[in-house]
């Protein structure tokens, strides 16, 4: 390969560029002619994509066949019924009220807001030559923080909203942060900006024209935080947090409309959060856009009025900015609907709680939340659509039983591929932890479709409410049972000039779900008239999607009824621990009690801990689905490896030369004794917990129950980085030499019946 | 086997594959660090190109773009796994190569830009076409990619 290309004109370092060229050329030689398949023989298949293992599983094929049958039946029903919606669904004209967008979750900024409450912080202007989100974010950062801030990654969420990460340039000790943008009037506009270390308004909320809640700061580098609203300046090592009013013409803290952090002086408390304000903050906010801004500097001479640092050498330590638009009334507090529970996820219909089970698993799961989300994306859209960005963590419940991940999806249109991506959908995948240690996906939604006004009424045993759509496209809503029966459907046509006003599909008549039949509430929209079709259908760009499986309810407590045999889409033999009364759960009282106990155990088990209690060899019966023993073991062990804050205490060596190490699991979850013995240059593990675990010779002996027929024991080496290698079970002690630990599981037809291990770093 | 696969392969595609397969697999390998994935990427790209052969104006560029896009998709899908699983050493016998390791740490856009610039010697405009971005963005990606590589190596 030639190397005569001129060195890049930015960041010139010809020597390093030549080094990169040489490396690439050198490594390309790793692939020699003998490594490449022979020439293409005519008519002979040259390769097949190695399908994901799960796709070969006959149960999944059956499920896929069932889905096809469902779609076929549904299509037939639509064809015979024409366009007339069923009696229990009607369409309504677009609402004439302002849209109530979904609340935004921007770390560090007040909660409970929708983007409608946020005025534009930065608008490139109508004359701008169609700058992309990166460029707008960069211009904004340059204006606010100076030229030393750079966008570090391109847009990670594509769609009506985008998030751009930024950082101080290398070698400067500044913060990292994010800029949040939204497409308005055809342009990307900045609506919020934060730094990782900032004043945290996450516990504050906008209520009745006031900012209510608390403001905290957890910086480990802030000394002597002092607010000086009157002088509008701070001196060296006196850092200011300013909340300014009236963004329009204030260059210094304004008395009118200003809200201040009312804490004269606070000392750093070991890096822990410091309460800066309690209770309602300030007077009612002015009825015009106002700015909530905090800027602090370190070692700088002063800052003025919350503007960007002025002095040379100033380093922004924290930064956040948001402009409220009080003219937009706050969203109505969402009254707790029937069946609502703590932990409700905003993307799901009200009354549906992913934590305790009223959402069935969609046919997607994985060993990690991201894997489950990825699986759902593939399941819903097929191979033509791939996640376009890393799954961004959006939220979870305190117990770690469910989590939401945000991603953008890219559909590749075969007609134009590989020219580029033709359509994108930004969406949220909600996943729920199962007692396998793995995760199942329970919902896929995106902001263009709002299901939060659909409520489950446990007393009536049905759904009622509104589906709102803000997409300029035909919209079809179907509600069908998982056996294929189409219970409700309606087509809704919106127009491109309807703007942000949502179209409303009203479900006035109760949609009963009391028959125990799980329901698939699915909303899909095409990009142009006549293009409404099944998700993933070739040539149908999908611009909006929502899909969630709701089980039937059998009583007023919201407990799901038994399912219909053969329609279960959850992984076989995988009772969902977070749904103790789930459709695949126990059928009699005794097992119901067991399930309740299991739920309690799981609920106590943060997803970041290992299910090995203090001083014990863990035994139990936990379903771990997998096509092979290895798959199931992987799923279990993979999740178990996600350990935080593991500490190892080495006790005094015993005369025998053995050492006992106590592995403390993070978060106060106990510790596990591990006994080791020096053997030459290696340490060998003798015992974990109270059971004898011996590593000897080339084999691995252990005190796990002897595997019976159709059972197997699988060992996995824990890598120094904290993960395990998928599909790579330990075969001998040599595989453990570089490992930080190991885990062993005994599986019985896909069910983990015992496990032990030492996951701690050596 | 589908009827499509039973249809004769276009002579031009067969010739193109025979001529470019080594170079394409090497390109995919530089983008993925995975031999098997590289071969699959190239094969998939060729397979996907087969029914569109007659409609493609510049088969070589098309195939290169297809390979780069599929390699990027592969990297994206690997990303979540990498969060839990350190990439396995490709071949311990090759010895340490810090720059190669650092390359694997780049995100797929930066990595693609670096490889296409310094291995394929493509101009910014062609790299931009592959990455579906502006040429200015390519320069930024190359600049930041180099900076990240240098930082990793120096550490």
Topology (elements, then pairings):
The complex is a heterodimer of chains A (762) and B (155).
Chain A: H1 14-28, H2 58-81, E1 90-92, E2 103-104, E3 113-114, H3 133-145, E4 149-151, E5 161-168, E6 176-184, E7 187-195, E8 199-207, E9 210-217, E10 225-226, E11 265-266, E12 274-277, E13 290-298, E14 315-324, E15 365-366, H4 369-381, E16 385-387, E17 392-396, E18 402-411, E19 423-433, E20 439-446, E21 449-450, E22 454-457, E23 462-469, E24 475-481, E25 486-492, E26 503-512, E27 519-525, E28 544-550, H5 589-604, E29 619-623, H6 629-640, E30 647-650, E31 658-664, E32 671-679, E33 682-688, E34 691-692, E35 694-696, E36 699-701, E37 711-718, E38 724-729, E39 741-748, E40 751-758
Antiparallel strand pairs in A: 1-26, 2-3, 4-5, 5-6, 6-7, 7-14, 8-9, 9-12, 10-11, 13-14, 15-20, 16-18, 17-18, 18-19, 19-20, 20-28, 21-23, 22-23, 23-26, 24-25, 24-27, 27-28, 29-40, 30-31, 31-32, 32-33, 33-34, 35-36, 37-38, 37-39, 39-40
Chain B: H1 3-6, H2 11-32, H3 35-49, H4 59-82, H5 98-104, H6 108-118, H7 124-131, H8 135-154
Helix pairs in contact in B: 2-3, 2-4, 3-4, 5-8, 6-8, 7-8
């Amino acid at each position: 390969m030639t190397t005569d290309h001129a060195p890049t004109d930015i960041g010139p370092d010809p020597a390093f560029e030549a080094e990169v060229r040489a490396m690439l050329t050198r490594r390309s030689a790793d692939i020699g002619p003998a490594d490449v398949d022979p020439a293409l023989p005519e008519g002979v298949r040259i390769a097949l994509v190695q399908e994901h293992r799960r796709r070969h599983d006959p149960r999944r094929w059956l499920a896929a066949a069932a889905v096809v049958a469902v779609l076929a039946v549904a299509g037939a029903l639509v064809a015979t019924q024409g366009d007339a919606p069923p009696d229990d669904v009607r369409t309504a004209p677009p609402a004439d009220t302002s849209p109530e967008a979904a609340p935004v979750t921007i770390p560090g900024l007040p909660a409970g807001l929708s983007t409608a409450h946020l005025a534009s912080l930065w608008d490139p202007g109508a004359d701008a030559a169609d700058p992309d989100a990166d460029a707008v974010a960069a211009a904004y950062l340059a204006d606010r923080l100076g030229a030393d801030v750079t966008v570090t990654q391109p847009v990670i969420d594509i769609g009506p909203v985008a998030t751009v990460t930024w950082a101080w340039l290398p070698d400067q000790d500044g913060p990292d942060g994010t800029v949040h943008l939204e497409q308005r009037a055809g342009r990307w506009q900045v609506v919020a900006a934060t730094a990782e270390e900032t004043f945290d308004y996450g516990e504050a909320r906008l209520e009745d024209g006031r900012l209510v809640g608390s403001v905290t700061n957890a910086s480990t580098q802030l000394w002597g935080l002092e607010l000086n609203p009157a002088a509008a300046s701070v001196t060296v090592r006196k850092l200011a947090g300013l909340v300014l009013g009236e963004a329009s013409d204030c260059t210094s803290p304004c008395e009118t409309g200003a809200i201040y952090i009312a804490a004269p002086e606070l000392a750093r408390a070991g890096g822990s959060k410091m309460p800066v304000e309690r209770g309602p903050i300030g007077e009612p906010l002015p009825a015009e856009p106002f700015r909530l801004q905090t800027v602090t500097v370190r070692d700088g001479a002063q800052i003025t009025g919350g503007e960007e640092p002025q002095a040379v050498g100033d380093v922004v330590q924290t930064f956040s900015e948001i402009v409220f638009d009080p003219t937009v009334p706050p969203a109505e507090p969402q009254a707790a609907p029937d069946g609502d529970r703590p932990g409700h996820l905003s993307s799901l219909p009200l009354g549906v709680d992913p934590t305790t089970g009223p959402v069935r698993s969609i046919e997607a799961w994985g060993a990690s939340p991201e894997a489950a989300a990825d699986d759902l994306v593939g399941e819903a859209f097929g191979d033509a659509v791939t996640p376009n960005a890393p799954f961004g963590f959006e939220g979870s419940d305190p117990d770690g039983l469910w989590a939401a991940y945000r991603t953008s999806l890219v559909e590749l249109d075969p007609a134009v591929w590989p020219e580029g991506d033709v359509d994108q959908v930004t969406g949220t995948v909600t996943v729920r932890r199962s007692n396998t240690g793995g995760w199942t996906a329970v919902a896929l939604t995106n902001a263009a479709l709002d299901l939060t006004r659909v409520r489950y009424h446990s007393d009536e045993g049905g759904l009622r409410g509104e589906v709102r759509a803000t997409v300029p496209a035909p919209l079809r809503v179907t509600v069908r049972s998982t056996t294929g029966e189409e219970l409700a459907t309606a087509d809704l046509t919106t127009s491109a000039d309807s703007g942000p006003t949502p179209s409303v599909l009203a479900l006035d008549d109760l949609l009963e779900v009391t028959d125990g039949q799980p329901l698939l509430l699915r909303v899909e929209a095409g990009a142009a008239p006549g293009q409404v079709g099944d998700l993933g259908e070739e040539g149908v760009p999908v611009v909006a999607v929502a899909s969630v499986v709701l089980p039937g309810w059998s009583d007023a407590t919201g407990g799901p009824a038994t399912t219909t045999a053969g329609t279960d889409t959850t992984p076989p033999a995988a009772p969902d621990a977070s749904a103790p009364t789930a459709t695949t759960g126990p059928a009699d009282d005794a097992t119901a009690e067991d399930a309740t106990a299991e739920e309690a155990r799981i609920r106590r088990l943060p997803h970041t801990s290992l299910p090995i209690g203090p001083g014990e060899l863990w035994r139990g019966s936990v379903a771990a689905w997998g096509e092979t023993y290895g798959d199931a073991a992987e799923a279990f062990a993979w999740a178990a490896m996600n350990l935080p804050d593991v500490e190892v205490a080495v006790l005094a060596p015993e005369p025998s030369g053995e050492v006992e190490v106590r592995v403390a699991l993070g978060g106060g979850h106990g510790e596990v004794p591990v006994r080791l013995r020096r053997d030459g240059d290696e340490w060998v593990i003798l015992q974990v917990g109270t059971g004898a675990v011996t590593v000897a010779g080339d084999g691995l002996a252990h005190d796990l129950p002897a595997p019976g027929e159709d059972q197997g024991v699988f060992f996995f080496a824990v890598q120094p980085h904290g993960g395990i290698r998928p599909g790579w079970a330990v075969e001998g002690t040599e595989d453990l030499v570089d490992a930080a630990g190991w885990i062993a599981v005994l599986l019985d037809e896909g069910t983990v019946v015992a496990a032990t291990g030492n996951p701690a770093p050596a | 086997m589908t009827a499509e696969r039973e249809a004769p392969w276009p002579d031009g595609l067969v010739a193109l594959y025979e001529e470019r397969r080594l170079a394409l697999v090497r390109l995919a390998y530089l983008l993925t660090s995975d031999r098997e994935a590289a071969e699959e990427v190239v094969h998939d790209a060729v397979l996907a190109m087969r029914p569109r052969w007659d409609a493609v104006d510049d088969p070589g560029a098309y195939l290169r773009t297809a390979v780069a896009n599929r390699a990027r998709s592969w990297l994206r899908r690997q990303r979540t796994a990498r969060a839990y699983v350190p990439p396995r050493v490709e071949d311990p016998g090759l010895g340490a190569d810090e720059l190669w390791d650092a390359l694997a740490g780049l995100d797929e856009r930066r990595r693609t830009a670096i490889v296409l610039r310094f291995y394929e010697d493509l101009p910014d405009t062609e790299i931009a076409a592959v990455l579906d971005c502006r040429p200015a963005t390519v320069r930024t990606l190359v600049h930041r990619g180099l900076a990240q590589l240098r930082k990793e190596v120096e550490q």
